[in-house]
Structures are given as structure tokens and as C-alpha cells.
Amino acid sequence: MTGRRTRDPEARRAALATATMEVIAENGVGRTTHRAVAARAGLPLGATTYYFPTLDDLIAAGLAHATAMLRSCLDEWAERLRGAPDLAATLTELTREYLTDRQQVRLEYELCLAAARDARLRPLAEVWMRGFTDVLEPYVGAAAGRDICALLDGLILLTLTTGTDLDEPGLTAAIRRLTGG
Amino acid sequence: MTGRRTRDPEARRAALATATMEVIAENGVGRTTHRAVAARAGLPLGATTYYFPTLDDLIAAGLAHATAMLRSCLDEWAERLRGAPDLAATLTELTREYLTDRQQVRLEYELCLAAARDARLRPLAEVWMRGFTDVLEPYVGAAAGRDICALLDGLILLTLTTGTDLDEPGLTAAIRRLTGG
DNA sequence: ATCATTCTGGTACGTTTGTACAAGTACGAT
DNA sequence: ATCGTACTTGTACAAACGTACCAGAATGAT
What we know:
Largest sheet of chain A: none
Shape of chain A: elongated
CATH architecture of chain A: Orthogonal Bundle
Distance between the termini of chain A: 53 Å
Oligomer: homodimer
CATH topology of chain A: Tetracycline Repressor, domain 2
């Protein structure tokens, strides 16, 4: 606790990671540049290379920050599911809420695609992929958990690419079927 | 049928679209450049801007070419399903085969993400999204068709990002559950 | 107070980028 | 044969790129 004002390296590092995440969500990994990140963070260009030697490092930091957000999102989901009387209905509602921030949703798929192309990023992508099935597992078992996760991912992708809305009753029914109900 | 040898504008246009598709699959939409496409097509740089005024046009042509391939892929799937005794098992087998070419799979998700970012590309993405559910609809109905499509998309994404193999028996069982069997 | 260290911010470099263009070549119509 | 049009290709250029670097300011240790 030093009460700094002018200098705060950790805050800068975090600000750069956040800004990178936002640029990735907006422009995609492939169009993420030092200058765009610096501008969004309100920091000079040199700050990006000072804290992250290469562009790949910067992007990895942005994606890591994104997975940290996803993880906290998962924690919230886990808690909401804990006391839920109707698992399928609750999952549907959570999905609906998740879809309100399309920027964030795009980010998730940017992460997946980046991990598909660069194996070093796979641990990050698995936080989301495996993390969600782990949340579901106690309720429905490992197999159904993975299936439901896949179903949600696919439906989210569908609404994202077609710009349509989620068919909530249909989703609830599908989840029930997958749980063997 | 003119038997040209030296000049063939349509062949060049097609070669550029194909090359663009390949570059997108390898590097992603965001890292697709005129020069990379020209090099892969074995054509001079100027050819890219002659046939496609801007980079966006070139990329759109590459994605359109990709959807054309996806459509023919869908046709093949439709035919294989037509005489299949066991729908779920056949779909699992088709998915397994589809996953052998990861480059092509990545391309599909590049298309989805590009469509999510640029509404003008949505008609292309819908060829795949809706096309597959249309193939399934006669067998399982519209709702289950969409759910199975989503399930497959999600599982394909999972295997793509984690680098793992498909759980074939699990997929077959999940499809059976979604069809109400 | 001094000093080594760490952080800051601006500038600079060589490369790669999208796009424009001009000079030249092939081809269909006449 | 010739002529206009369509195609070809190499080159050019300004902008943006990743990265390197340096002079200085702030900081903690002494």
C-alpha cells in the first residue's frame, strides 16, 4: 500500500492487457496492433513494448485477461446454478444474459480460433471449454456436461453469426433432452 | 470452349479466390494480405487489385469460395444421410471425417467470426448454418435439426481448440437424445 | 544526498502494407 | 491488317507497421 499517483507499473500492465482485450474484441487478433492498444489505453507507444517484448506477448496478455474475465463469469454461473430449482431453465437464462454483450462473445471465439492456430494458447482456451463442463458435471455428469457446453457454444455461435435472437424455450427443451430428462 | 492458354481471366479470378481462401485458413482473415494471396496464387500483385478493387472484396471472394465448398460438402452429407439406416451413427462418422482437415474447419470458424463482425458477410455464414439444419430437418424436424447442428458445431470447436479427438460414442448418444430417441 | 534501478515518453528505423498507375501485350471486332 | 478494349505486370508511394533506442524523470536503498 504505497498510495502512488504518478507511477504505477502494475496498473499500466493491467491497463494494456485490458486495452488489448478490447482491441481484439473489436478488430480481431489479426488486426491488433501496438498502436491501437496504446491509443485505447491512453499510453504512449513505447509502453506496450516495455511491458510486453513482442506483439505476440501483448496479444497473449490480452487473451489471458479475457480468460480471467471468463473464469469469473464461470464462478458467477456456478453460484447461480447451485441453488437453482430448474437447471435447464437457469442455463437458458444465463445464456440469454451472456448474449447481451456480443463484444464479449466475439472475444470468446477469437480466443478459440487463436488457440486452434497456436498451441501455446490452448491452456487459456481450455479454461473456458473445460471450466464450463466442470461446472455442469456435478449436476448432470461429465458426458452430458460436455454435450450441453457444446450445444450452448453452437447456439451462441449461431446467434452471433446470424444476428438472430436465441430460441429460449427450444434451448431449455434441448438441455432437458441432453440430461436424459 | 475456346481452348485458351495464355489468357484466362475467369481462371485467374477463381485462382485468386481459392488462394485467398487458403491464406485465410492459414493466417486468419486479419492477416490476409494482397501479397500473400498473390504469392500463393502464383500471380503478380497487380492481379489482385485488378480483379478485386479492395482488400475487403478479395477477402469476401475468398469467403464466398469457402462457402461454395461448404455447400458441396453439405450436398455430399445430404446424400450420405439419405440412405443411412442409423442417422446418429452416420452423423458421427461424417463429423469424424470432417475433422480430418483441420485447416478447413478453421476456415469455417473464420467465416463465422467474420460474419459476426461484418453483417454483409452474414448471407455467406448462413449458407453453412442454415444449410446444415435444412439437411437434417426432414429426418428430425426443425428444432432438433438446429440443436444437432449446434451440438456438432460446439464439439467441433472443442476438438479444434483443445487439439483432442472426438468422442464418437458420446456424440452418437447425444444425437440420439436430441432426436428424442 | 547520492546513486543504481526502474519506469517514462518520444523519436527513429527499416519493412510491410493497401492501393494507384503507366507501359505493354493479347484479343475480338471490323 | 488495324484498332479499341481488356488484360497483364512491374514499379511506385504514402501510410502504418513492429521494434529499437535514448534521454530524462521518478523511486528505493544507502
